[in-house]
Design a protein that fits this description.
It is a single chain. This protein folds into 2 domains: about 10-25 and about 50-65 and about 275-320; about 75-260, Glutaredoxin, CATH 3.40.30.10. It is built from 8 helices and 13 strands. A 5-stranded mixed beta sheet has the order 6-5-4-10-11, with helices on both faces. Strands 1-7 form a two-stranded antiparallel ribbon. A two-stranded antiparallel ribbon has the order 2-3. Helices cover about 35% and strands about 15% of the residues. The protein is of the alpha+beta class. The protein starts with 18 loop residues before the first helix and ends with a helix.
Length: about 325
């Protein structure tokens, strides 16, 4: 049987042939050189990376979506104050509120077309609520942030203090439209007040728990911004005073069901994944490993093709 192995390369990198082969120089025989060996090694490593990445997806790893244990006990002032994530929960769109102009509106009036950024605050809050609205506005006006209020999504702020009315809401809207700096976006900012029954129904639906502190004479609550889909389902929670522009950007793309955003956003969503325990988007190690393996595989194939053509041209030159 003929030997299936490639001949050993000499110092020129061309396989050494037998005397019988020399008599058949007229026939172009493709030989295996060191470059093809390197290319084959790269492809092999790439395939190993892609296949080994499946091991990270097997059961037994750390569940990033599992609730984390609290680092310490909560202060007494925050007992009963919490955010229970209710992803994909439907908010009741038939709830009645009063807008900043004193008109009775339905919550559903602000849905159906675009995603909604929901801010649960109260307008006379001495500190935290103002910081939340300031931080949200700062994120939305970050240079390079691709989406605009009123065009790509709406902002709906709802006061959970039933004693507040449309006059306070109107002042808040005026202040934040001015702070945002884009007058045409006014139609996308909404500041609502309402009765306790409607407030409770909305806060319960999104898992937002708060309470009145008699000693401090103010409400105790946590800082969060909630992202809702155009149909009124809870999509994402962003914790803290100022959410990261990247998190809000990717969250809006997902909440819109990819109706807004670009190919670059889709690439980012492949590499980043929403972590409910942190309320942020983080790297997905599994997808990164697969992407790296895929790039290495393509590079190995291209390298092999180029080097194979070069060596083939070298063989032909020696024959001629």
């Amino acid at each position: 049987m003929p030997n299936a192995q490639c001949p050993m390369p000499n110092e020129t990198g061309v396989g050494v042939t037998s005397g019988a082969d020399e008599t058949r120089r007229g026939r172009s025989t493709v030989r295996c050189g060191p470059a093809l060996f390197v290319a084959a090694l790269i492809v092999h490593c790439a395939l190993c990376i892609v296949h080994s990445s499946d091991a990270f997806a097997q059961p037994g790893g750390h569940d990033l979506t599992a609730p984390r244990e609290p680092a310490s006990e909560r202060p007494r002032a925050l007992e009963g104050v919490d955010i229970e994530q209710k992803l994909d929960a439907q908010v009741p769109l038939n709830l009645s509120f009063v807008d900043e102009e004193g008109r009775t509106v339905r919550l559903g009036d602000y849905f159906g077309r675009r995603p909604v950024v929901l801010a649960l605050v109260y307008y006379e809050c001495p500190m935290l609520c103002t910081q939340v609205l300031n931080g949200l506005t700062g994120t939305l006006k970050t240079p390079g942030f691709p989406f605009e209020v009123g065009r790509d999504f709406d902002v709906v702020a709802v006061s959970f203090n039933p004693k507040e009315g449309p006059k306070l809401a109107a002042l808040k809207k005026l202040a934040y439209v001015d702070r945002y700096g884009r007058p045409a976006s006014e139609r996308g900012w909404h500041f609502l007040t309402g009765e306790q029954e409607a407030i409770t129904a909305l806060t319960d639906a999104v898992g937002f728990s708060y309470k009145w502190d008699d000693q401090a004479q103010q409400y105790s609550h946590l800082a969060t911004t909630i992202l809702l889909t155009p149909s009124g389902r809870v999509s994402r929670y962003f914790y803290g005073i100022q959410p990261a522009p990247r998190d809000v950007r990717l969250g809006l793309v997902e909440a819109s069901h990819n109706r807004i955003g670009t190919l670059a956003d889709q690439v980012l969503l492949y590499c980043f994944h929403y972590d409910p325990t942190t309320g942020r988007y983080g790297w997905v190690a599994l997808n990164l490993i697969r992407a790296a393996g895929g790039l290495l595989l393509v590079a190995g194939v291209l390298f092999g093709v180029v080097m194979w053509r070069r060596e083939r041209r070298g063989v032909y030159a020696r024959i001629l």
